[in-house]
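Can anyone check this?
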Amino acid sequence: MKKKLFTIALMAIIPILTYGQFSITGKISDVASNEVLVGATITIQNSFSGVYSNTKGTYTLKNLKAGKYNLQFSYIGYKTIIKEIDLNVNLTIDISLERTALMTDEVIVKATRATDNSPTTYSTLQKSQLEKTNLGQDITYMMNTLPSVVVTSDAGGGVGYTGIRIRGTDPTRINVTINGIPYNDAESQGSFWVDLPDFTSSIENMQIQRGVGTSTNGAGAFGASINIQTTKLNQEAYATYSGSFGSFNTAKNTMNFGTGLINNKFTFDGRVSNITSDGFIDRAFSDMKSYYLSGAYYGKKDILRIIAFSGLEKTYQAWYGVPKDSLETNRTFNPYTYKNQIDYYQQDNYQALYSHEFNQHLNFNAALHYTYGSGYYEEYKEQDDFSSYGLNDLIINTDTITTSDLIRRRWLSNDFYGATWAFNYSKNKLNATFGGAANQYLGRHFGNVIWAQYASNSKPDNKYYNDKATKTDVNEFVKVAYQINNKFNTYFDLQYRTVNYAFTGFNDSLMMVDQDATLSFINPKIGLSYKINNSSNIYASFATGNKEPNRNDYVDATPISRPKSEKLENLELGYKLNKPKFYVGATCYYMYYTNQLVLTGKLNDVGAYTRTNIPKSYRAGLELEGGYKICKNLEASANVTFSENKIMNFTEYIDNWDDWSQSSKTYSKTDIAFSPNIISSGAIVYQPIKNAEISWISKYVGKQFLDNTSNNDRSIDPYFTNDLRLAYNIKPKFMKEISFNLSFINILDEMYESNGWSYTYISGGTQLTDNYYYPQAGRHFLVGLTLKF
């Protein structure tokens, strides 16, 4: 039986390879100077195959069957050429590329991107891929099928508050940039995608780097980074309407528009969107609006683009989760019943991007940015203590009243601004970047009581807490890639980052006072790649990342009990193989943490549950991915991650409600919370007729633990979901395109949870555990219509 299963698995993973007998060779050069172009991309359209020109500008495509092919030749800053050939003998095709009359938008994100020759593990999603799945769900769900990715939704349907983990890394450790500009919240260091509703509709492409990755701007990339490029030059005028609706009264309406290139110099683009949903969880509705506006000037050697985008979200809270004992009987349970238990927030973003080409080898890009955010979450509290709000007890007749039902709002208002810059140099064997950023964040946190059963001595608009924070983040980096010969390519990357955080927190006497902390980090990275042949290469890299603690780690502690910064040392070994009919990739990674911050349940010197530094922990894994074009109309792809994620020594602290003390228990080599040992995804795509596509997408996530004790009673069960997607588009004479999309999500009705939390305590001499989970929707659907003019 085992032998049979092994044979079946082997047949599923390794396709039968049929090699052709012909080859295509040639040289790529500049049409004007006749200078060879190193690193030009040569791809066979509608296949997995592609190569790059070597240090002599030459390329080779081998083992091709006889037949017709469309070859695409491209290089940044040059016009792309597509050449149709009929291959029945060995061919030599030399190509001279002409420089574009205008600079291209790729230079905007070049400084923070990995390239195919980089010894970095990454995936890229293009606009055409995003359009197939963009029916109203959050950006995180667009990445769900990528290697080592797990996504979750508070409301259960992928709309509203969502989260993503990559290799088990939580959102506060994932660096996010938009056009090279930091997006992570400076204090919590998380990225709140709910503040960017339907931003997917304004994305040109996004690169997801796993591990420390290349140097970037903003929050430390401590396990992954997401680099987004927004809409680039569209030379023709266009207008697009996208509408979708589906289960839970989910609806999305989007209008994209653009002028095309005016007078060969100017473009204007825009988008307006609205997304609403009732959510799978009771009352977990979302009402989100957004816009994106861009105006650009394109010169032969300059680009100036001004961008403004904004999101306004109103979501009913589904943060608390569903108790374990309700999962079988009431999966949509929401403990919140107050009608206005909402989160309300608006974020306005402004970017000014400038690029200049000094010559064909050297260019410069810079950006100024400003973000303003303001909003609150509103809560109904039963019998809360007056003392928690600085209010006096009430004495009525002979009764002393110390508590009251009340409604409170907790506000955040912030400004974030700064600049990024980079010089990019590329000539022959050398590619180098020298860049950096300087950013400052001003945050204001305050709360007020808007209603109380007993008002006590409260006043209108009285703030029961009011504190502020300032965070300054400066970094510089240099990246150098040098191609030693046609086989070896080296990479060196060094970043220096300084962070200053001034805030209101506790002092040694447990009084609220102004504090500050300054940290400096050096993050080196080095790598080597080796080209085995024209279709395969291997690479190795070693990188170091450092990360400062989050807001709560600082604010809820004194200088004595403050945690240390975290350090990550990351080793990556990778292999890539691309053939016309199939591709294979394999990555081994080892991520060793020093002083990783985790929750242990321990109370610090001010009685707060803050994270504790764990001296040693690690993540080690193997990521496999591949695809096979079975025939002209059918292809399959899959990826799987096998990993081990361990804390070497861990002490759990448990509250004892009987005497208000804490007990402790020490563990050895336990699993890191929310880090499944197996994550996999697969897709089968069939085109029954022209312009029609049927896709079956599967996702498996192994067991996850809710804390770091490896206790099976505090875990999330494995789950396996399947989606069916149907797409069809036509191109009538009176408009560019009409597209229909239908997604049956979780079509086999898997009952599963993707996230949760746990609290263990002692009461009445007995240790008890309360587990809360975030159930995801069963079988549901989304259907969409897109009209392109």
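Reply from J.R.: I decoded it. The first strand starts at residue 22 and ends at 30.
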